[in-house]
Amino acid sequence: MFFSVSTGTISRKKISSPIPSSSSIDQHNIGLEGIRGAEIVVKLLRVQRSIQRIILGHNSLGDIGTVAIFDYLRSEEGKRHRITEISLNSNGIGDKGLWAIARYLEDNDSLNTLFLQNNNFEGERPIMLRFVLAVNRSRLHTLNLTSNPALSDSLCSTFLTTLCASRLSDLQLSLCALGPSSVPALISFLTSPKAVNLKQLKLNGNSFGLDGLTKIIDALEQSNWSLNHLEIYACCTNEPHSEEGWKALERRFSTLILERNRFLTNRAANDALVLLRHARPALLHYGRITDGARSRLPMELVIHTLSFLDPALSTSQHLRICKYAASPDTLPSVGLTLPSVGPSFRSPGKDPSSWLLLRPQHTSIAGSSGKNAAEEAREEWLRTVGCDRFEPETFNILNQPTNDEDESVKSGMA
C-alpha cells in the first residue's frame, strides 16, 4: 500500500483576492503568508453577507495569520458567518494557531468539518487539552489531523483519553507517528461509550505493528458496534513475514466486523422508524381518553407490547422512542395555509415516521453533500434519539436509565 503525502510546499504565485462565491471563499494554494494573507481573507469575509466554507489549504499563514483570521471570526462582525467547513491543511500552523482554533470552537455551533492535516502542531498538554475540550463541545462531525507526527504523544496521553464528542463521526489520524504504545489508549477509546457516534476512522501509515493491529481488531470485534469504516493500511510494513498475517487480518475486520456493524446500524435505524410509526397512535393520546375507555391496557404493558416491533433496539433506545412518540411537542407543523399548488396541507417528510422508506446514500463520509435534505433530517433525528447505532444490552448497561429516569419516561407518557 502506497501513500502520497503532501509536503506543504508553498507556491509563490502572485497573491490575488478574487470575489468569492456566494457561500464560500476558496483561496487554496495562492501564496497567502502570515498577517498579510490573513488580511486578504478577512477582507473577503467582510464584503460577503454570509460565508459557509473557507478553503485555505497549502498556503503559509502560520500562527500569526491563523490567529488573526479566527480573532475576526470570533468578533461580532465575524459571527454573522455561519461557517460549516474550514480547511487549513499545510499552512505551517503551530500550537498558538491551534489555541486560536480551540477558542473559536468553544463558542461555535455551526462548524461541522475541520481539516488541519500536515501542520506544525507540537501538542503541548495545556493547548491540546483545551483543543480536545473544545472539540467535545462543538458540532464537528469530521476532524482531520493527518500528517501531524509531532502530535504522537499528545494524541495518546491527552487527546484520545479526553475525547468525548457527541457528534464526531469521522476522525482521521493517519501518519501521526502512532506506535505500539498508542494501542492501549486507542483501544480504551474505541471500546468505550465515548466512541459510540464514531462511524469512520483512518489510521493509515502509523506503526502499530501486526501485534498491535491484532489487539485493535480483537477489541473492535468484542466491544465496538458503531464503526462502519476503518482504514489501517501500511501500519506494519517494517515487519518481516507480515504480509500473510495482514491479509488475514484485513479479511477479518472488513468482512466480519465492519459488515456486521453496518448491518446492525441499518437494522437499528429501521426498527426505530417502525416503532415510531406504531407508537404514535398507541401513546400520543394515552391518558387523555374520556370515560368509556376505562379498560385500556396499563402503560407498562403497552410499552412492552411495542417492544416486539424493534428487536434490534436496546431498552434505553426503545424508551426514548416511546417518549418521543407520546409527546405532542414532537409532532410536525401542520402548516394550515392555502397551498399554491396541489391539495396537501402538510409538508412531506417532516414527521420522522415518513422517512421509513428512505435509504442512506452509500457515501464514505457522514454528512457528505451526496445526501439530500430528507436524508440529512433522517440522520439528525436518529442521532437525536440515539438510534443511529446498535446498542447491545450488555454494552447499554453503561447508559441504562436510572429508576428515577425510567419513572420520568413513563410519567411523561401518562
Automatic annotation (TrEMBL):
Gene Ontology cellular component list: cytosol; nucleus; perinuclear region of cytoplasm
Protein's recorded name: RNI-like protein
Higher taxonomy: Eukaryota, Fungi, Dikarya, Basidiomycota, Agaricomycotina
A GO biological process held by the record: nucleocytoplasmic transport
The entry's keywords: GTPase activation, Leucine-rich repeat, Repeat
Organism of this sequence: Sphaerobolus stellatus (strain SS14)
Repeat in keyword set: yes
A GO term, aspect molecular function: GTPase activator activity
Record-linked SMART domains: LRR_RI
